[in-house]
């Protein structure tokens, strides 16, 4: 390899995901091996994703990374583990046009530049680390001509952030806990792609919080150490739910899907509460959203909407179809209207074509909403302006893709520095 | 027995109690037999109690009851079970002065008048049914010259409201779940009287709630039917905690007492959350109080305050001694000040001599409070006026007593009707 001035780079986009059977608790803190299997839905990257550009050049003097425009340290073990694992699998790369020729052995000493960007607020608690580490590993695998399949790559992404392994696939994904000490069988597999069940519509309520939250890393460590319910959940409850959830997804059985999702979300938060000191991720707004959905589902006789909450107060609501999603959004906006003078298109983001279908694209449209009759008087009064920061409308989506269009790259093709 | 016009009556006072190892779940809904043992602290009846007057007269044409001045139906099975059980144990009663002569067999056909009054708001969620059924059974036992000891009476009160059985004793009380199908061994026993550990000071924060709460009766039924964690808690977790809590009480070991109380309260609420649909008794204010106490205990290195929450958002805080209670009250009033123009003596009730010790009896005294240094910035800003309705300061207290002073009776000694 000559010491030319070339910069060789790849840009990729990776989705985030939301677990419907939850991952909570590691049996190995270093390798990030979980105490139970988990299942997730991949969210459409058009609305929630990470874009990462990775570059290699003989002119780079050290590994560097920029996250959302700001340089961050790569010295943490999670980054180091991912970089070491992926480097050891690098293959030969040649780009005659650019004069690039890299041999397998070169990856150990070539330095990398990495720029990553989330198209949603990192602080919103929307699993940015899952999409981030998945995108890091996926883009580096493409850059380095790594031959591993997505499941094998998922075992690398897992070492950056557990739930990242599930973002290597679109649609419905299972993270198998595995049994080996080295974690090589703790990988994600796709249960069904995003086209398998494309009726589903997902509405995320980004809930305002005044409380600083426990990070999921330290939270789950404390749960493993102190909760007397966690092991029972992991050993006795989750294995059965995994089988049932796989079946529900296979059969597009929305009633079972909803029952399992809601129960498992609640049980995960129950384990958090059983932790010492207790961890509260949901707040009164989260509880109000649950009450609204539970009452609606009961009044309809058959489940219309599933809910699930990760390590924060945000509600992820999965509607059985577009018609239900429209009604759901109307109900949500009735109870959680925007603050005065808020543009509806900034209050409902993502696929906000739903606003028109819900008759909510005009002036005063929220003020004219009627309370959903079946849930009136049940979840408190309509005075909750500001409890929800905004809503995101999305759907199940595809897995990681390379973005071949160089204009989407986050690094300058000449300097390898952020644009 | 002659058909004279006499009215014979007894008035008694009975305390309420707060469980520190929780009762949640029945194995027999009719006899009210629990799935695990529980342990409680009896609260001083000077601050929280029920007073009940029971009267018998040949002139009464039916059983009648008045609760807080309003006539209520006695047709429910809980009242009927208590009345049947206690009647079957009635003895001979003679009061020559009044011309009263009742034989054992007469109790089956003599009618009763019952008037009961709580010295605290029934709606505040302070276990009014526990004190109420205990007082009903205790006062009837006195009226009817029942020879059973308090444990045997507790098995009758238990059939009115499970936790009522623990209000038959002062101090520290265990409700043994028992193993017999007929419930005869599911009784309360005293672990230690109220003088055993009289350093303890109890502050109850009556928390405002805008959500209608699930009754504990239906809540625990739903938990038994749907929570996959409840049986594990009842069988594997609670039995060990009961042994440890008995030991902690015996040794006045406040650190263990606190750890067990807090963990068990949180686990009970975890089981509620694991119920389908989930039950939320604690709200954001409850969570904020927990955070305050947890952080304070950690910063002190050794536990100063235990917390426990029943089926509602109210916090019951147990301070290791009076000095700690004064600091606790100062911290609570800093974070949860009264609304403007509130008289401090109506915001801190019960033993409000503590106000003077805390320097909170003067004008503007709350405004001058400094944030507790160890917990500053940790539980949100100080803008929570109205989150707490009021505080009650109390202590461990005595069991039921007869009130011989006729002026305290709630029924007229001539007519047997409410005064």
From TrEMBL, chains A, B:
Pfam families: MDD_C, MVD-like_N. The keyword DNA repair does not apply. It is an enzyme of class 4 (lyase). Residues 202-402 form the Mvd1 C-terminal domain. The keyword Repeat does not apply. It catalyses: (R)-5-diphosphomevalonate + ATP = isopentenyl diphosphate + ADP + phosphate + CO2. Residues 15-188 form the Diphosphomevalonate decarboxylase-like N-terminal domain. Keywords: ATP-binding, Lipid biosynthesis, Lipid metabolism, Lyase, Nucleotide-binding, Steroid biosynthesis, Steroid metabolism, Sterol biosynthesis, Sterol metabolism. Its EC number is 4.1.1.33. Residues 362-383 are annotated as: Disordered. InterPro entries: GHMP_kinase_C_sf, Mev_decarb, Mev_diP_decarb, MVD-like_N, Mvd1_C, Ribosomal_Su5_D2-typ_SF, Ribsml_uS5_D2-typ_fold_subgr. It comes from the Eukaryota. Belongs to the diphosphomevalonate decarboxylase family. Performs the first committed step in the biosynthesis of isoprene-containing compounds such as sterols and terpenoids. NCBIfam families: mevDPdecarb (TIGR01240). This is Diphosphomevalonate decarboxylase.
